[in-house]
Amino acid sequence: MMPKVTPAVVILGNNSIPVARKIISVLPGAQLYGLAGRTSNVDISFTEFGTTLRELFASGTPIIGICATGIIIRTLAPLLANKRQEPPVLAVAEDGSAVVPLLGGLNGVNSLARQIANVLGVKPAITTTGDIRFGIALEDPPAGYRLANPEHAKSFMSDLLAGNSVRLEGHAPWLRNSSLPIAEDAERVIQITEKQVVSTPTRLVYHPATIAIGVRCTLPPPRKRGGVPDRAGWGSEEIALVQQMLADAELTPASVAGIFASTLDAANPALQAIADALNVPIRFFTTDEIAAISQNQTTDVAVTAALAASSGELVIQRELSHLSCAIAIAPQPIDVSTRGKPRGRLAIIGTGPGASDWMSPEVKEILRNATDLVGYSTYLGLLGSLTKGKQQHESDNREEIARARMALDLAAEGHFVAVVSSGDPGIYAMAAAVFEVLDQDAKPEWQGIEIQVAPGISAMQAAAARIGAPLGHDFCAISLSDILKPWSIIEQRITAAAKADFVLAFYNPVSKQRTWQLAEAKNILLNYRDPDTPVVLARNLGRDGESIQVCTLEHLAPELADMRTVILVGSSKTRTIQRCDGSFWVYTPRRYEEDKSV
User: Fold this and answer.
1) Model confidence, pTM
2) Structural fold of domain 346-457
């Protein structure tokens, strides 16, 4: 069984890169991890080898360490507790002359070792006796099969190694084509079946993933709690029906390959509840695909989906008021990745001002898993190696609406799309654009998309952190761009904020076409603020050419800023502290006391 999670190839020096690249060439999506200061041109840099390796292991990521076996063993030894849950771990010699599987014998480490050894032109150092003699590991079936009684596999293999033969019941080419001592009159049996049967120490049972469950599920009237839809319990009725249907047909849940439905039902939480209960994926067929498969007959959508996924025989069908469910069995294990498409995902992410250190782990994880990246070319360029292997869709910075439509359309096709913004995506960025398009266009195919917004450090937060704590009390943010709103509105808001004595964060202060707005904003503020009010101008934060300076409101001028600058204007309480090098800290006290002398 090959691992589903893409592996991490870990190196400690640049001499290992040629071998690492060969390995990655046969492992699509694999990430190259390199020790900082000793490696270059890697996907992910790390400073602590032990911490990194343990985090990867704990997350279930297959590990291919191009280093000595001893350092891997000593690093992971404290985590070894359950061999059934251990991901594959291998050690590879720096020159590629040896491939040694260390851990994960029940999760495909030998298969992975063979794949790596093949590309390196060497023989893997596999030491599993059954694997060597029979060319097979009973505890580690290939994709599409699940062993019902893994606790008996070791003793069963020991019996075969001791000279006993085995009888096969059912169809499994990977067993029939092995070197197992097969005999029709053998007392020990390996059974391959979708049926719910009893396993014993002398009877191993493999369940092939041949069952397709088609579901058509409309949303029932939502229960409400305090005027808000209550999702608690959604899916329980549907799960019970599916489980009862499997029981009535004497089929085991272990043979279910996946849940299959129409894209129109993709957002229905009951579908995900069923899939989670059975621990299987969901795949969707478009309405056009379902119509073509059913040849425009009135066949139930659930039946059509089950038959399309299985290319087999319908076993059972049942209906509730809002639910239709059909079960079909395929003649061989179903490769779910080739049936329909997954539910589309759209993540609107904020990378922060630009520095990788300011990018959240959530955002980095999204970028690693996304299939498509959509964004302004400058922002995509800040991602570096995180764009590797992704389809990039670049556009001009002013094409937000077109970019949002493209992202939604890509997600509707089953892609995992990341819409990339700098700073925070919900602050003058792409999150609002996506929801604006979603609201105004309201395409039916968009309704099934899973959408999330992953926050980032905003420019005003980064600027404040660089200079002290100017946002330490009440503040507001105002964009000086009048492209999407008239200047009269901007003027009203500056005036209101100035009267209320907020600290102000000005976004988009100056562009090549707009130079007068900042000067006009300054004039408005001077009606309510002292000319000596501290002003912070922060440009290119977290990127090459970063600069941050402090001046007074009186000396604020358009030539000091551009579109890459965020400006923080202090309140009447904002203070500066001169440092020994002549620079300043800027802060706004937390306590705000009204001046009673006025």
Assistant:
1) 0.76
2) Cobalt-precorrin-4 Transmethylase; domain 1 (3.40.1010)
